[in-house]
Design brief:
Length: 119
């Protein structure tokens, strides 16, 4: 489960978003994790309807709860906008949790596709 809220600034073809992101993970084989990570996203519009973006989030041990002691996530994606409120995207993401009493676990790693609608 993830929840985030960002402040966004856009200037021409560039956009930047920063803010906190809460991540909760229930592991089948191993400890559970909860973190409040800090990070953001940078986007560059390379064509009229196409944007490339990169994002990164990090949570040190002071912002990690349950059995976790840290977290990091990074992703890169390409996005096509049908209009200002609708888009589809494809990208790559990796997120990992660190634990005090267990080995680190990669929670998510690989390609993804999706869509976005704003109201």
């Amino acid at each position: 489960m993830q929840f985030y809220t960002h402040m966004m600034h856009q200037s021409g073809a560039h956009s930047i978003e920063i803010g906190p992101k809460f991540v909760k993970a229930w592991m089948d084989k191993g400890p559970n994790a909860s973190v409040l990570s800090v990070g953001g996203q940078y986007g560059l519009q390379i064509a009229k309807n196409v944007t490339l973006s990169a994002a990164a989030y990090y949570a040190p041990s002071v912002l990690s709860f349950a059995d976790s002691s840290g977290y990091f996530e990074y992703e890169g994606k390409a996005q096509y906008h049908f209009n200002p409120n609708m888009a589809i995207f494809i990208g790559y993401r990796k997120s990992s949790f660190e634990f005090e009493e267990a080995p680190s676990r990669t929670f998510e790693q690989g390609m993804f596709i999706g869509g976005k609608a704003s109201f």
